[in-house]
Amino acid sequence: MKATIRDVAKYANVSISTVSRVMNAPDTVTVEKRDRVLKAIEALQYQPNAFARGLIYKKSDTIGVMIPDIENPYFTGLIRGMQDAAVRLNHSLMICNTDRDKQRTINYVRSFFEKQVDGFIFASDSLHKEYYEEMERYHLPFVLASTNAPEYNIPSVDIDDEQAAFEAVRHLIVSGHRNIGMINMPLDRTISGQPRYEGFLRALDEAGLHHCNPFVEYAEHRYSDAYEAAARLFARHPELTAVFAASDEFAMGTISYLRDQGKTVPGQVSVIGFDNIRMAEMFIPKLTTIEQPTYEIGYRSVQMLHELITKGKVRVLREKLPHRLIIRESTGIHIYPIHAD
């Protein structure tokens, strides 16, 4: 039979209210009585609910996670990595979807404090000043996953977005393409839009393709937004033979638009994505893309937070994990026709 709070009180020779105070306000109980109650709890293997255990031991073994869009397939690998690391380190996850809404994000930070999480992970979104100030106010340990904030000394784990984008565009260039466009995220509202745009420009500059610099359209975060952005891009620049999409979902939206216009991929237009989500290999044509180690980013973010919670600091403040170019079917060699004099 499971021990009850009454059994604990009897074993420790204290009142039930004293046991309750040890669980809810331990500083109000004398050290001698508090020790007796804690020994009674251990001896009887009394298991109060999780909230009460958190009050006793001043830890809940719960980690909060904030992600911007739970419907985005990118986050499946990230959360799976977090979950596996959390299980290994005896933590539970509390996952919250922010929808990139500032007030909702701030409310979640307050909720984490009220629910006594040990720390939290802020994933794949810009760390606005309002967020940082609210997070600092509650003195909760937190780390950044698949994002970064160089202006603050916050532990983070992600990839080098600028270099990854550079390698994606360079792949198109060495495949013979000279008219290359980009479908990107808004530069002012996303953490990865700016560095991926800079990687795009650097590859063009290195190859002397400066005329391609303005061949950019912007989409929000979804497949349908990318479809519309592709329509705008090709209306302005029908001469394009290749597109670098800043996410796999954007690449799929671009390819769908091209198909609807009767254009073949990669026969007439090559498209390269970014992320290597699970669907990238299932899509037709299979996507050439930049692989982000999403599982590893998620796993490492929990390890990093655990280190911060238990030791008060981390060995590596800003960790960059390796990315990889995956060449599949959506990109091909482009040969410009030779015109007779």
UniProtKB/TrEMBL annotation:
Pfam families for this protein: LacI, Peripla_BP_1
Source species of the chain: Paenibacillus roseus
Keyword DNA-binding on entry: yes
CDD domains in alphabetical order: HTH_LacI, PBP1_CcpA-like
GO MF terms held by the record: DNA-binding transcription factor activity; transcription cis-regulatory region binding
Keyword terms, alphabetized: DNA-binding, Transcription, Transcription regulation
Keyword Metal-binding belongs to the record: no
Domain HTH lacI-type span(s) in chain numbering: 3-57
InterPro entries: HTH_LacI (IPR000843), Lambda_DNA-bd_dom_sf (IPR010982), Peripla_BP/Lac1_sug-bd_dom (IPR001761), Peripla_BP_I (IPR028082)
PROSITE patterns listed in its UniProt record: HTH_LACI_1, HTH_LACI_2
Protein name: LacI family DNA-binding transcriptional regulator
